[in-house]
Design a protein that fits this description.
Layout: E1 12-17, H1 19-22, H2 30-37, E2 43-48, H3 54-64, E3 75-79, H4 99-114, E4 121-125, H5 132-137, H6 150-167, E5 170-172, H7 174-178, H8 184-187, H9 197-213, E6 237-238, E7 245-246
Parallel strand pairs: 1-2, 1-3, 3-4, 4-5
Antiparallel strand pairs: 6-7
Helix pairs in contact: 2-9, 3-4, 4-6
Length: 260
């Protein structure tokens, strides 16, 4: 249950979605980057479920985010759409969700999360594009043909963006943001669908941009949050003068990217 996290006064962030979320700590993924940025500032939990669509999410959202939890999230980042947008299978099985139902499901997810508490903020990620050719090459023989197209991704992405605008929620248009990079098709995915480290960096950049610009009180941007146990200590590293110590609790020298 989400309610067991968020101790010690730190804000609680929950990443909720399908495989884009479940795999977000793999391959230098966007979840792991955020966890590093928010180390000693916020707790980040993954509630990611590979293969899920928005229909499945609405069926169990009350179990994942129980209203009687002791602690509710300060931020939920939501992603569903890639599986919903897959083509319909003649058997009636599979993850496809018709666009009108997807819209209603996303609205339902948003409204439920908004009802958790006054402090709970939400950011939606829209459906990103895919590398169709690479996806076909990587399709397992154990699966039927995966009918994923960029045109369908665009439709579901636009639908997600429109729902969020209607509800006054923050949304990141990943379909557009990913394609701003000229070589997106070859460098942003590991398998044509899931993000490589380069694709994840785009997600993180946009998430931080939203958090920095959001007029939320208190701000959830990492530079605005206090660092846990940041006070000076005689047990810190000894300075060159041999008489004092150096507090490195907020140093970011270890990061290849100095995130804003």
């Amino acid at each position: 249950m989400v309610g067991v996290g968020g101790g010690g006064g730190r804000p609680l962030f929950v990443l909720f979605g399908s495989s884009i979320v479940q795999y977000s700590f793999s391959n230098d993924g966007w979840g792991s980057i955020l966890a590093d940025i928010y180390a000693r500032k916020a707790d980040i939990l993954i509630r990611g479920y590979a293969g899920w669509n928005s229909r499945r999410a609405t069926q169990v959202i009350e179990q994942i985010f129980p209203k009687d939890a002791l602690v509710h999230p300060d931020l939920v980042i939501v992603y569903f759409g890639g599986n919903d947008s897959m083509g319909y299978h003649p058997s009636g099985l599979g993850p496809h969700v018709p666009l009108p139902e997807y819209i209603e499901n996303m609205r339902s997810i948003a409204n439920y999360l908004k009802s958790l508490s006054e402090k709970t903020h939400i950011i939606f990620l829209s459906c990103p594009p895919v590398n169709e050719e690479k996806l076909r090459q990587n399709t397992s023989n154990a699966l039927s043909e995966l009918a994923r197209t960029n045109e369908a991704c665009r439709e579901y992405s636009e639908a997600c963006v429109n729902v969020c605008k209607e509800l006054g929620l923050k949304v990141i248009d990943l379909y557009t943001e990913i394609q701003k990079r000229d070589d997106w098709c070859t460098v942003c995915f590991t398998d044509g669908v899931h993000f490589s480290s380069e694709g994840s960096k785009i997600v993180v950049k946009e998430v931080l941009k939203v958090l920095k610009e959001a007029e939320w009180e208190p701000s959830l941007h990492w530079k605005s949050l206090p660092t846990e146990f940041a006070e000076d200590s005689p047990y810190d590293l000894v300075a060159a003068d041999g008489k004092s110590t150096v507090n490195i609790s907020q140093c970011t020298f270890h990061r290849e990217i100095q995130w804003d």
